[in-house]
Amino acid sequence: MTRLGIVLSGRGSNFLAIAAQIEQGNLPAEIAVVISNRPDAEGLAAARKRGLQALSLPSKGLDREEYDRRLEAALREHQVDWVILAGYMRILSAGFIRAFPQRILNIHPSLLPAFPGLDAQHQAFAYGVKIAGCTVHFVDEQLDHGPIVLQAAVAVEDGDTAETLAARILQQEHRIYSEALRRLFTRPWRIVDRRVELGE
Ligand code: GRF
User: Fold this and answer.
1) Which DSSP helix (H) or strand (E) runs through 18?
2) 66, 84, 102, 121: least CB-packed within 10 angstroms?
3) DSSP code per residue over 113-141
4) Is there an atom of ligand 1 within 6 Å of 121 CB?
5) What is the pLDDT of residues 14-36, one digit of tens each?
6) Please, which pLDDT band fits residue 60 given cuts at 50, 70 and 90?
7) Ligand 1 lined by 172 (C-beta under 6 Å)
8) For ligand 1, what atom is nearest to the CA of residue 169?
């Protein structure tokens, strides 16, 4: 069974959506460990409540390379096959990314390459786009940049605020993260240049 290491910093709703799909038998994987750099992350408490391995690995006071070495060691200790970023609010070092080649995924609340970085839903709303959305992508050494696995579009409606839009984008995030994992775990795939090609 494919072993997932979930890495998060906050609320953890994407993690919980993935956990629910696994529990319902819709995603052939298991959660080996949930790690948070913030001890008080809601996602960590939710993981404990579900009886999952939940690890607080505070980043305070450590430089990026040192922290990432500890993160890598913890993930290896739990023998994870894939690193699933789910609201992890830190940039990963090149060393960490090279340690898990083509095995780190992230979800970002915009249709990349539009609006990388923080508060993507607010950025999109303020820009005035009519179509927003979210993206599941491989993580490479540039922020919110790696090859795209799956995207979903969300129409901006009259009367939306950045918050109502973000809430609808989040619903799509919950759907496509598990769907992206399901495709990668159950079908052959390869990355050609930066295109993710799925086989049957
Ligand atoms: C999501 O909007 C995700 O796209 C972004 O961070 C947020 C995490 O939310 N990377 P949650 O912790 O999964 O609820």
Assistant:
1) helix 13-23
2) 66
3) TSS-STTHHHHHHHHT-SEEEEEEEE--S
4) no
5) 999 999 999 999 999 999 999 99
6) confident
7) no
8) 2
CA distance 108 to 135: 5
Q: Is 108 a catalytic residue?
A: yes
pTM over 0.85, yes/no: yes
Q: What residue type is 150 in one-letter code? A: L
Please give the number of the atom of ligand 1 that sits closest to the Cα of 134.
Answer: 4
Q: Which helix (H) or strand (E) holds 171?
A: helix 162-186
For a pocket test of ligand 1, which of 6, 151, 173 has the largest count of ligand atoms closer than 8 A to its C-beta?
A: 173
Beta strands in the chain (DSSP E): 2-8, 29-36, 54-56, 82-85, 104-108, 131-138, 148-155, 189-192, 195-198
- Supply the Cα-derived Rg of the chain in whole angstroms: 16
Residue matched to tokens 């494919």: 2
Query: Scanning the structure block, which residue is given the tokens 């956990």?
Result: 19
- CA torsion, ordered 57, 29, 96, 87, to nearest 10 deg: -60
